[in-house]
Amino acid sequence: xxxxxxxxxxxxxxxxxxxxxxxxxxxxxxxxxxxxxxxxxxxxxxxxxxxxxxxxxxxxxxxxxxxxxxxxxxxxxxxxxxxxxxxxxxxxxxxxxxxxxxxxxxxxxxxxxxxxxxxxxxxxxxxxxxxxxxxxxxxxxxxxxxxxxxxxxxxxxxxxxxxxxxxxxxxxxxxxxxxxxxxxxxxxxxxxxxxxxxxxxxxxxxxxxxxxxxxxxxxxxxxxxxxxxxxxxxxxxxxxx
Length: 241
Known about the structure:
The protein is 42% helix and 12% strand. By secondary structure, the chain is an alpha+beta fold. Helix 3 (111-124) runs antiparallel to helix 4, helix 3 packs across helix 6 and helix 5 (144-152) crosses helix 6. It is extended, with a radius of gyration of 29 Å.
């Protein structure tokens, strides 16, 4: 019995799609059109063309429990709803990827930022000179997170910040904004299950700090002017002065 060999040719303009296809079928992407080796070739259990809505798509399906690539199909009534779902799925996948690197959590609802602001301000009081003002402002800048949470919930930010500071000064390091309590209510974020990923919080503060420091280091701005040089002397508008 002779084995039949079928070839399928597809044109992909996106490098991302090409890499995803190579990972899904276990094949190696060749930069040049040459004869592939047996190690560079893999297989796919099923290839079919199907319709999703008004779009015609080519589906590469592997009959196995674990695959290198999975596709999530999002359906919705409007583009805005699908965009929101796409962002939610993307955030969930990125959070899971970050958890595989570091599974630590910190209190959410603005509790971590208020506690950091309190400790930075306390540390700044031990310094003298301009460094103390810089530390105070750095700690004050961390209050933007609970302030934004209050504004989104329709609560007075100043009232919420004052309550959070009072709770943290009293020793409640996990005190955060209670969005469901009504008004500028405060509750224990850890007991309420409101947690933030440590790795995401760490890099967010680091990138924001680096951006602010970069802006403060700019001491010279060079503005480009139209090229052409001075006007020629035979021009009636030429000014010797």
